[in-house]
């Protein structure tokens, strides 16, 4: 476990810190104000705090795109610039190295998403005190529901963000397709409205989580094969 933590710390050191931090700040700031903008444009989303919570959880899906950005830096660029061969030269198994990359991306996305949920919730509440765009009164049950759903949604987004990891990260090593895949995933539930289809949210989330876990398994299982070669 200690080795994995050290490897994850090494992944952080290799990142382009200014670019990553700028991304996180931009994502968070945009997401903090989007609920108010949506509700002011489409008042039906502000009928109750329950509908607002559902809207805000959907908006947080934007962090799947941040996951694609991390996959690009942590995996694709290392293959592209041949620095992956240096990592494979360490006296550590390739599978453990790949697991460290997965855990690093997952931890980063989870923490950023959960913190964004909290900040977005606080910003929406404070803005509502001035602009009154949400009907009804905030209750303790609403706050408890928001925290629990934020935690669950952060896990779902974390796993969904790993879906491009194997195909576009380890196998094809393609940045643009990875980003396009992330955009599709973050908008997937909205396609149901466009196609007039009733997509069961819980079922969709389960499928996304399973696909993410499957992607991680394939990436680690095949890293010693031809797919994982430099």
Order of helices and strands: HHHHHHHHHH
Which runs of at least 5 residues are low in confidence (pLDDT < 50)?
Answer: none
Radius of gyration: 19 Å
Number of strands: 0
Strand content: under 5%
Q: How many strands, which pairing sense, and closed or not: the largest β-sheet? A: none
Mean pLDDT: 91
Distance between the termini: 26 Å
Protein name: ABC transporter permease
Transmembrane segments: 20-39, 51-76, 97-123, 143-163, 170-191, 203-223
Organism: Paenibacillus shunpengii
Keywords: Membrane, Transmembrane, Transmembrane helix
Description:
By secondary structure, this protein is mainly α. About 80% of the residues lie in helices and about 0% in strands. The chain has 10 helices and no strands. It has helices spanning about 1-15, 15-40, 50-60, 65-80, 85-90, 95-130, 140-160, 165-170, 175-195, 200-220. Helix 2 packs antiparallel against helix 3 (about 50-60), helix 6 runs antiparallel to helix 7 (about 140-160) and helix 6 (about 95-130) runs antiparallel to helix 10 (about 200-220). The radius of gyration is 19 Å and the shape is elongated. Keywords: Membrane, Transmembrane, Transmembrane helix. It comes from Paenibacillus shunpengii. Pfam families: ABC2_membrane_4 (PF12730). This is ABC transporter permease.
């Amino acid at each position: 476990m200690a080795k994995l933590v050290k490897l994850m710390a090494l992944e952080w050191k290799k990142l382009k810190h200014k670019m990553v931090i700028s991304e996180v700040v931009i994502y968070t700031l945009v997401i903090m104000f989007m609920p108010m903008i949506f509700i002011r444009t489409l008042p039906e989303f502000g009928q109750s705090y329950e509908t607002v919570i559902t809207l805000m959880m959907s908006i947080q899906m934007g962090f799947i795109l941040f996951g694609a950005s991390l996959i690009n830096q942590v995996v694709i660029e290392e293959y592209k610039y041949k620095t992956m061969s240096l990592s494979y030269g360490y006296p550590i198994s390739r599978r453990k190295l790949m697991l460290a990359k997965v855990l690093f991306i997952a931890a980063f996305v989870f923490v950023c998403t959960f913190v964004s949920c909290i900040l977005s919730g606080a910003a929406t509440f404070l803005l509502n005190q001035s602009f009154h765009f949400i009907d009804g009164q905030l209750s303790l049950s609403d706050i408890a529901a928001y925290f629990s759903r934020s935690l669950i949604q952060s896990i779902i987004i974390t796993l969904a963000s790993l879906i491009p990891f194997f195909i576009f990260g380890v196998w094809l090593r393609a940045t643009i397709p990875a980003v396009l895949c992330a955009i599709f995933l973050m908008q997937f539930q909205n396609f149901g409205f466009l196609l007039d289809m009733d997509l069961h949210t819980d079922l969709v989330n389960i499928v996304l989580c399973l696909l993410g876990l499957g992607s991680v398994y394939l990436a680690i299982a095949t890293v010693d094969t031809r797919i994982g070669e430099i």
